Amino acid sequence: MGKLIKILLILFVVFFPSYLANKASAANYGYETEYSSQYGAQYGYESEYPGQYSYQEYGYQSQYSYQSQYSYQEYTYQSQYGSQLPPPTPTPTPAPVCDTNCIGGSWSYSCGCTTAGGQTGHKATCTIAGVCSWQDPTCYADPSCNNGYTKTVKTCNSTGTRYDTIQSCDLTCSTATPTPLPTPPPPPPPPTYTISGNVFLDNNKNTLKDSNETNYTGSITIASTGGSVSSAGGAYTVSNLNTGTYTISYTDKPSGYQLTYPLNGPPPSFQVAVGGTCSTGGSNSATCSGGSIANLNFGITNSNPWIQCIGADCRVDSGFINKIPANASCGPYASLPGSGGTPGLVFTGNTTADFGQGRASQNDWVAGGISYGETYSPTKIGGQIKTSYSFLLSKGKPVDIASYCTGGISSCTLSSSLPHGIYIANGNLKLVGGGYTFGASQDFVILVKNGDLTIAEKIFVPVGSTAIFSSSGNITVDKAVGEAVNSSTTADIEGIYSADKNFIVQGTNDCSVGTDLRLNVGGSVITNASLNGGSFQNQRDLCAGNVQCPAFSAAERPDFILNSPNFLKQANFTYQEIAP
Question: Whose CB has fewer CB within 10 Å in the chain, the N or C terminal residue?
Fold first, then answer.
């Protein structure tokens, strides 16, 4: 026992200085205050080993000998750390950056952008207070933007959580009813256009509707390739036309009228365009305004040139076509009564006569027609017409008229002392001057060989004389010869005028230029005298005056028959058997 105590005592003595030394070392390194309580409390040492480590429990004595293995002197804690352990190294905090991660900031959203695919969307903006602000350039599809919904604003934490682009509703609108967007108004209908115009009475035939000209009051028919057509009082409107090209036609010209404008067709038409590329199709009066067209006019007239005979017969074997106006002040007849008180006959060959709105005469005397055709065919004197060039040439020896022409036959001023007889011009003969009067009680025959006769002055033949002009070609009366007063019946050329070919009443025949003179003949006009073809050709137009008077008239001269040369006279015999 004493030995045991001795041994324990020795151990205690031996251990105690070490313990003291160790304790001093612990104090030096702050273990006692820092780790005796701290680690004890942390690891549960304090309740069991308050203020110190249980070396025996953790086997420090045998396994972790401070002396041999973990010598404090070896680690020199005192010199390196003083009296405490080094602080733990902190985890670094990322620096704020305004980008798609928005670390340390928050996102906000704004609607109103349009995606690449054309959808409504929103953009997101990252804001870090006091640091920066950045908007994501991408527009994210969001069809319900601004439709009662709001975006949930998310704050990105340090791990860089990205924002959510899916639309969501926050708590403030969980019970709200979305306000529907107003229904957009329907798109306006495309604009429509109109075309309007008139069918007017172009009395002066200048192709324009003048201030003193009125519309045709009868029924009219206008055709259009589009829209709706209405008409009244000669005016028409085509409405409900979309932008485009259309053809407007006038399809029912009334009987007795002729078109003055336009002269295409039939039917007369305009091709026009309405809308932004408005075009009047070449009309001389139409205008474009706001894409629509106005004054697209059609001109018609019953003011046609016509002819009239006074006391004499009128024969046109190819058909008497003479458009006479209904209320002509000069008489709405093809033949008026002459000095004998009766009109002449109207011969129309094998064709039905057409007097327009007038009549043949007060007696309506007409010969020929389809049912009872009648054409002139001479049966005597070899089937010749007595006024033809060849027949008259055979009746005497003519004198060259050039000897009596001042200026030559191409511009002949006849001698005032021209003796009676038969004369001939070898080529074209043109009579000029201030008017020529043949001698009294004399007979004259003027022939034109191988040429035409042109009369450029007035010709007068006194009663008791005769003058016969016969051309192997045409006879033309210059447009300067005539009467300016449409109602005048004063003769401008007197005599018998026979053309183997055509008798031409020359005129301007263009009312846009001016009105022609009325030509009055005292005597007779014969065409196609050679029976080889020829006609009467009236080229004069009295324009507005046509509705009152003829452009050409031929009045009887019975004295020419009585006083004509003997070789023109023919005895007519009637044979009758009388019982003895």
Answer: C
